[in-house]
Please model this.
Amino acid sequence: MLPPEELQAKVLSLQAEVEDLQAQLAWFRRQMFGARSEKLPADVLAQAKLGLPEVPLVDRKTQTVTYERRTPAPEKRPIPAEVFAHLPVSETIEIVPEEVKADPDAFEQISQERTFEVDIIGPKLVKRQIVRPKFRRKADRNLAPVIAPALPRVAVGGYASAGLIAYIVVSKYQHHLPLYRLESMSAQWGAELSRKTMADWVRIAADWAEPIYKLMHAQLLSGRYLQCDETPVKFIDPDERGQGAIQGYLWVVSAPGGDVVFDWRLSRRHGELTSLLTDDYVGVMQSDGYEAYASYARSHPTVAWLGCWAHARRKFFEAQSQSPRITKAALRLIGRMYRREREWDNQKLEAWQRARERAKPEGLARTMQALKRLAIRVRQQVLPKSKLGQACDYLLNQWEPLMNHQHYGESRLDNNLVENALRPSCIGKKNWLFIGHPDAGQRSAILYSLIVSCERHGKDPLAYLKDLLTRLPRMTNQDDLKPLLPVNWQPLQ
Model:
């Protein structure tokens, strides 16, 4: 008679094998009877990732299958005329046959054929002339002339429009073009713009946007649920000659459906997190297993710390080559949790309803406990520094924040949304390599916050920044800034 722990592990292993065989059988049936497609079903992709053995082929000589099926309707692809219907027509070209040109009176037009081609017109620098007439009173010519006040502009005393500054900011922070590259490109636009001038414009944009940024931060902290992450970014300190690039960090906080806020810090210590979230934050904080988050949660009793199941899953995924059978069992259990979450998403459950469902044995509780028992059993049989040992250690060390998801229905199982928000900065630093000055770090954080938030909400960052930099100089301290938050902003009709 086997001990209960070994019986449990055996049951989980056999259950995983049964599920794998069922998935293989379903795949085989689709190959024989289903519609053919170049796109693999999700369960087939999962099998490939899990390293399942190939399904043996049936001997064609001993099996004959006869069936009828309805031919699937071909996928309708939009025609070019529909795709480009919204584009304006910049030019109309009429091509008349040469014989008609030679003797136009001998022909009469009966119809015409219309086609089109799509062209691109690159950026061109143009000047917008601003005229303010001066007037003198006829009755008293000694009085000062009357002239309309100049329109408030984002670059006071300069020549850059809100649209030009917005274009430079978007090119750098959305399309990851370093300023030196924009400098070389600007000659093709009609006039060369120096990188120093463009750096000044970036600073101007960040200075004007700072009140919006602070409001975004305050709005996030007023909520009950935050996702956090950080990424290293190098910078050059001109006061430290010969030291080279120094490590700084972009921290990011966001909430699903809300704006994204970046913040620049010179270190990765938990004290930086305290200044970012403040001592007054009350709610749920989700992150990976970095110790700074654990330390912040321990020192702030009003904060509940939630872990990231994607990180736990990734550890087992990376250990597949060491022990396919065990990792398949663990991945199946985690996959079961995600399937339940998708079901609740489709049901559009409220936070309290999701928390109730998660706490049920058939929700997440039983699956989580089975996964923990498996990790404890396996951890005793493998080396600590092995991939599987590290996966089990991560799961067990992070068990409390991972289990906390049962109590907070507003949370997502993983931190993927905030990690996705960090990707533009990670791509950008591969192009511009480092931040030129520590002060530029916070300016980058402000502008990344606006652009990434626009992208999350499906809004055009260029249109947003142009509108923002046009309207802000005309506003007063009493004006409401909430409509200008990326989550609320709507383009003018």
In short: The two ends are 76 Å apart (CA to CA). Residues 4-33 form the longest helix (30 residues). The chain is about 50% helix and 10% strand. Residues 36-62 have pLDDT under 50 and may be disordered.
